[in-house]
């Protein structure tokens, strides 16, 4: 009989183990972060006070703790692309936003990046984009990095596309990109080459102005 | 998109700048915000209680009353507020839904009043959050059962044209429908009782002749009992055959438990008739008589409680199994211990371990017959431990079984597990539909977005021919058809398409084109479009006169998809290469709902209707290109015209 009771008590111990784990998770999310004052942010970015207010309300609603970690970020971004898998691209985006490499995005990082993207000069925007593509932050974009980025973008399309996605579509895209950008044909694209090539391309210039009035 | 996530749309659009250098195609024009309102507070007056919220908060769900223009019907000009003559307590939950994206069901609220409020405000109950969904479903089910019970009294109304067979079956199943059925019910019940009593009395010793030993009544009045038995079996056989005849599905009837009991009850008699007085099988025959006692189970047709008990035992199978298993373990352990403890003593009844089983069972169930008792001290100690633990082991699963019984009894033995599964399946199906619905919303609204864009493209060169009034009128109408949020989201998806040079299509279309292996020519099913050059259009620009037919708030029937390899026109306008008309699934902008919540696919979107746009005068291909207008009526079929 004691054996019977013993086996049952063993089972109950396992249950409580899982519960403890959940408690730990709860504790971690209690970390809270408050941004600097509204005036400072207004000075640092190109947004007006009202715009910052609207942005913060949306930010705080989704992330009450004041910081976004990578999982939440991926989740939020994936909701805009229900067809495909946006997690890889969201990962690269997260790294681009998280300039301090802290593993989480605070409101200041968020608003600084948005300020560049929406209100910055062409050079700043291109610099930010270069940073996004340069995954290992070594100052050069090589073919592997670019292939990763392009593949991540294609992943967002999902499976049901017209025409049907072929396996080498990203590769072709990357080759075309390098054809255009790599001026000295050394296999990597530097920041200057990038900015120069983009400024030569009318389409790109025009599309950079596309999101001027997003806020 | 969930509530708060809608606020992140600007971020997602800004991040789209990351795609720009990679794209080879020019990007579509962004939807312009016509009258950009600053976010303002609006007051909602619900039966005197005032709620205030941002306008943007309500705009998150454009397919509800508060999020759409329907609320304008409730606008009070003098007080500058929206007045609703509804319950303010329930409205709290409704408004919180907009704020947090989660709909909660308050426990104190009546289920039908809550449902009514949700229906009024255009919110589908399926999106109730998981925290409250179980409660909501339980209450709803109880309510439905109560309604059904009320209706069941009317259910027995006889249907107009029932065949004789159906009438008989109904009579068998519901005895109180007609007097004949009632009579039959009572007669069979009587004979079941008679048969059972006969079987019992048969074995009673009946008085005897002085010099003989006592004989049971069965052997003394053999003939009488035989006649009684025959009569009962006759009745049961007739009844069984009648049920078999009347059953709607004979095969299913023969497999059912009750029919098996019937068969087992009457079979021994017939077998007895067949093999008479054969010494070898008489032993087996006697055993078969035992099965006559199964007649008592026929009573379960007459008693609902018996059926519930049977159902309870079936549903508590796992608890019963656990009880049995733990008992077996304990019995084996204690029997072994007792055997070895009592081995030493002489004249011990514990001759083997299986012999000790009997002692263990009798002790654990606290029966204590006393036919086997331990004599050694060790045996007595272990015996007492055995009896104490017996109480525990048996007491443990019993409350579970009892509570199960009461639950089933109170719910009148409805198969709620089966229904819950169906509901769960339905819910999952709705979630799946909403996921495809959100992507379909984009595919469908692609036309809207592109039509919009086409209009804007046509603005510049065509300004001399168009009256400004006409164009802005049309634009206004179109912009009303989708919310700003949605159009921005669609613009974002469209940018992605341009970046990768592939289009989003829905699953059916993908399967089709995949199977067809990439057609070059597409059959044109549109009679109007056939006014173009046969099947394939031209790749030159077409000139159409812009027709001022008032466009209803409708989707554009066709949209143009410029591809890279068409030559660009000297004036920089893009070419008509393919026209795609996708089959529609009319989902109201479910894009603004959480993707993992089922979206309201309830009704046709009032904003999106398939319109017939009259075609302008036959297209004339001219070298000087002017802007084209998408033309052609909207069809439900897939119409693909390749203009390559």
Automatic annotation (TrEMBL), chain A:
Where, per UniProt, does this protein localize?
Cell membrane
One GO cellular component from the entry? voltage-gated potassium channel complex
Q: Name one GO biological process term.
A: regulation of potassium ion transmembrane transport
Superkingdom of source: Eukaryota
Can you provide one Gene Ontology molecular function annotated for this UniProt record? potassium channel regulator activity
Keywords in alphabetical order:
Calcium, Cell membrane, Ion channel, Ion transport, Membrane, Metal-binding, Potassium, Potassium channel, Potassium transport, Repeat, Transport, Voltage-gated channel
Question: Is Cell membrane included in the keywords of this UniProt record?
Answer: yes
The UniProt entry lists the main location of this chain as: membrane
Q: Which CDD domains match?
A: EFh
The record's listing under Pfam families reads: EF-hand_7, EF-hand_8
User: Does the record carry Cell membrane as a key word?
Assistant: yes
The UniProt entry, under PANTHER family, shows:
CALCIUM BINDING PROTEINS, KV CHANNEL-INTERACTING PROTEIN 1
Instruction: Name it.
Output: Kv channel-interacting protein 1 isoform X3
TrEMBL record, chain B:
The record, for Gene3D superfamilies, names: 1.10.287.70, Potassium Channel Kv1.1, Chain A, Voltage-gated potassium channels. Chain C
Q: Which reaction is catalysed here?
A: K(+)(in) = K(+)(out)
Looking at the record's lineage, which domain of life comes first? Eukaryota
Molecular function GO terms recorded:
A-type (transient outward) potassium channel activity; metal ion binding
One matching Pfam family: Shal-type
The listed locations are:
Cell membrane; Cell projection, Dendrite
This protein's UniProt keywords? Cell membrane, Cell projection, Ion channel, Ion transport, Membrane, Metal-binding, Phosphoprotein, Potassium, Potassium channel, Potassium transport, Signal, Transmembrane, Transmembrane helix, Transport, Voltage-gated channel, Zinc
Q: Which residues form the signal peptide?
A: 1-16
State the GO CC annotations.
dendritic spine; neuronal cell body; postsynaptic membrane; voltage-gated potassium channel complex
Where is it chiefly localized? membrane
Q: What is the recorded membrane topology of this protein? A: Multi-pass membrane protein
Span-the-membrane segments of this chain are: 221-241, 253-275, 320-341, 353-369, 381-402
GO biological process terms, alphabetically, are:
action potential; potassium ion export across plasma membrane; protein homooligomerization
Q: BTB domain: which residues?
A: 40-139
| PANTHER family, A to Z | POTASSIUM VOLTAGE-GATED CHANNEL SUBFAMILY D MEMBER 3, VOLTAGE-GATED POTASSIUM CHANNEL
Its protein name is Potassium voltage-gated channel subfamily D member 3
Biological classification of the source: Eukaryota, Metazoa, Chordata, Craniata, Vertebrata
């Amino acid at each position: 009989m004691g054996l019977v009771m013993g086996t049952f008590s063993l089972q109950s111990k396992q249950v409580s183990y899982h519960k403890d784990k959940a408690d730990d998770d709860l504790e971690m999310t209690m970390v809270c972060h408050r941004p600097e004052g509204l005036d400072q942010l207004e000075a640092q970015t190109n947004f007006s006070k009202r715009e910052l207010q609207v942005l913060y309300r949306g930010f705080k609603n989704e992330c009450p703790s004041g910081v976004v970690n990578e999982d939440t970020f991926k989740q939020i971004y994936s909701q805009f692309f229900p067809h495909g898998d946006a997690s890889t691209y969201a990962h690269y985006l997260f790294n681009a936003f998280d300039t301090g490499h802290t593993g989480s995005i605070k409101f200041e990082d968020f608003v600084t990046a948005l300020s560049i993207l929406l209100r910055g000069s062409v050079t700043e925007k291109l610099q930010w984009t270069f940073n996004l593509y340069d995954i290992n932050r070594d100052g050069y974009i090589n073919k592997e990095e670019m292939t990763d980025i392009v593949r991540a973008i294609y992943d967002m399309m999902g499976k049901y596309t017209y025409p049907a996605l072929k396996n080498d579509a990203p590769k072709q895209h990357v080759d075309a990109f390098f054809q255009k950008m790599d001026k000295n044909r050394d296999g990597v694209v530097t920041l200057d080459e990038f900015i120069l090539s983009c400024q030569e391309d009318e389409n790109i210039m025009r599309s950079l102005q596309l999101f001027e009035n997003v806020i | 998109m969930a509530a708060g996530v809608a606020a992140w749309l600007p971020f997602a659009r800004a991040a789209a700048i990351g795609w720009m250098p990679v794209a080879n195609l020019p990007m579509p024009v962004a939807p312009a915000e016509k009258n950009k309102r600053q976010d303002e507070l609006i007051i909602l007056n619900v039966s005197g209680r005032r709620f205030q919220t941002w306008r943007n908060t309500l705009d998150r769900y454009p397919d509800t009353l508060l999020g759409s223009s329907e609320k304008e019907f409730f606008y009070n000009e003098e007080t500058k507020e929206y007045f609703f003559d509804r319950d303010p307590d329930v409205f709290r939950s409704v408004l919180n839904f907009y704020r947090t994206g989660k709909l909660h069901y308050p426990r104190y609220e009546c289920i039908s009043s809550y449902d009514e409020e949700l229906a009024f405000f255009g919110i589908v109950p399926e999106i109730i959050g998981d925290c409250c969904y179980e409660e909501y479903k339980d209450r709803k089910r109880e309510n439905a059962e109560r309604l059904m019970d009320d209706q069941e009294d009317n259910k027995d109304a006889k249907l107009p044209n029932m065949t004789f067979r159906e009438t008989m079956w109904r009579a068998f199943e519901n005895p109180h429908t007609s007097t004949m059925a009632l009579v039959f019910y009572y007669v069979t019940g009587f004979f079941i009782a008679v048969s059972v009593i006969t079987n019992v009395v048969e074995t009673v010793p009946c008085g005897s002749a002085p010099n003989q030993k006592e004989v049971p009544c069965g052997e003394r009045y053999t003939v009488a009992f035989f006649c009684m038995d025959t009569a009962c079996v006759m009745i049961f056989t007739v009844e069984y055959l009648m049920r078999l005849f009347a059953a709607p599905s004979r095969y299913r009837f023969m497999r059912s438990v009750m029919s098996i009991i019937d068969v087992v009850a009457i079979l021994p008699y017939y077998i007895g008739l067949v093999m008479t007085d054969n010494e070898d099988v008489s032993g087996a025959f006697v055993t078969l008589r035992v099965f006559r006692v199964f007649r008592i189970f026929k009573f379960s047709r007459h008693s609902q409680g018996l059926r519930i008990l049977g159902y309870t035992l079936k549903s508590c199978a796992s608890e019963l199994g656990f009880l049995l298993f733990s008992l077996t373990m304990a019995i084996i352990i204690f029997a072994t211990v007792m055997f070895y403890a009592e081995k030493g003593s002489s004249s011990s009844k514990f001759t083997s371990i299986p012999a000790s089983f009997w002692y263990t069972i009798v002790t654990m169930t606290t029966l204590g017959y006393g036919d086997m008792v331990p004599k050694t001290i060790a045996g007595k100690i272990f015996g007492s431990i055995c009896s104490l633990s017996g109480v525990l082991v048996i007491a443990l699963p019993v409350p579970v079984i009892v509570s199960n019984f009461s639950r089933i009894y109170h719910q009148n033995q409805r198969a709620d597990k089966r229904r819950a599964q169906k509901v769960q399946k339905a819910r999952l199906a709705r979630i799946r539909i909403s996921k495809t619905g959100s992507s379909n919303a984009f595919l469908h609204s692609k036309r809207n977005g592109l039509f919009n864009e086409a209009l804007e493209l046509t603005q510049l060169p065509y300004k001399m021919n168009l009256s400004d009034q006409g164009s802005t009128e049309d634009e206004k109408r179109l912009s009303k058809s989708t919310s700003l949020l949605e159009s921005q989201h669609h613009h974002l998806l469209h940018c992605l398409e341009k970046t990768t040079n592939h289009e989003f299509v829905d699953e059916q279309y993908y399967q089709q084109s995949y199977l067809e292996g990439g057609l070059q020519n597409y059959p044109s099913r549109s009679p109007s479009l056939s006014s173009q050059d046969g099947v394939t259009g031209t790749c030159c620009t077409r000139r159409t006169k812009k027709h001022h037919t008032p466009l209803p708030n409708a989707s554009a029937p066709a949209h143009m998809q410029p591809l890279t390899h068409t030559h660009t026109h000297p004036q920089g306008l893009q070419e008509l290469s393919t026209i795609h008309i996708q089959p529609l699934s009319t989902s109201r902008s479910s894009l603004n709902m959480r993707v993992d919540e089922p979206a309201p696919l309830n009704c046709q979107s009032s904003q999106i209707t398939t319109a017939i746009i009259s075609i302008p005068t036959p297209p004339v291909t001219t070298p000087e290109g002017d802007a084209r207008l998408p033309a052609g009526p909207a069809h439900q079929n897939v119409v693909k015209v390749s203009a390559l």
